[in-house]
Design goal:
about 190 residues; mainly beta; Jelly Rolls; 2 domains; five-stranded antiparallel β-sheet; about 0% helix; globular
Length: about 190
């Protein structure tokens, strides 16, 4: 069980109709987002238009959290809901999704029927220690701002970096976070 540090040099940034998207990690390694042949994908996108439509992804479930800014998100026929930093919204990637407002967001996409996902946001204005108890699977710790370390594994990340563990087996993960915003993402196979 090895944790790998990913930096901006490891990411892939592309344009989408409403801004840019930066792929932080994808599974399996070497999968291509455009081919829709992936099990899961982590990304961070900029929403630069006042109104945009999300790309339909009918084979995937999605989790979205805003890192900075705020948007109103209309999922399928539901009324628009505000999504500010710290909130996580889960939805079916195949339904129509519209947004109003500008932001930078974090996305987890997991293939339906092949995996289950979870996203947790840690936000603080002071240092804090904690324990994460994920199920076995693939884990990611994205440091949107500040810094985070996993002392028992001897790894750390600072703003814009990701810690990734493919095939986490079991047990709690100790986290030491400096002031900032950290996103925990977990995917397990079904």
């Amino acid at each position: 069980m090895e944790w790998k540090l990913l930096t901006r040099d490891d990411y892939v940034t592309t344009n989408w109709s409403g801004g840019t998207t930066t792929q932080l990690a994808i599974a399996p390694e070497g999968a291509v987002y455009a081919g829709r042949d992936f099990l899961w994908r982590l990304s961070s996108a900029t929403v630069e238009l006042d109104h945009s439509d999300f790309t339909p992804l009918p084979d995937y479930n999605r989790w979205l959290s805003v890192l900075c800014g705020e948007i109103q998100l209309k999922i399928d026929a539901d009324a628009p809901v505000p999504v500010a930093p710290g909130k996580v919204v889960a939805f079916d990637g195949g339904v129509p999704v519209e947004s109003w407002g500008r932001c930078v967001d974090f996305n987890l996409m997991v293939r339906k029927g092949r995996g289950e996902g979870a996203v947790t946001v840690l936000s603080n204005t002071h240092p804090q220690d904690g324990t994460w108890n994920p199920e076995p699977g693939d884990l990611a710790v994205y440091c949107a701002s500040g810094s985070v370390s996993l002392p028992e594994f001897g790894v750390a990340a600072k703003t814009g970096q990701t810690l990734l563990c493919r095939g986490f087996e079991s047990g709690p993960v100790s986290l030491a976070c400096e002031a900032g915003l950290v996103i925990l993402a977990a995917v397990r196979g079904v």
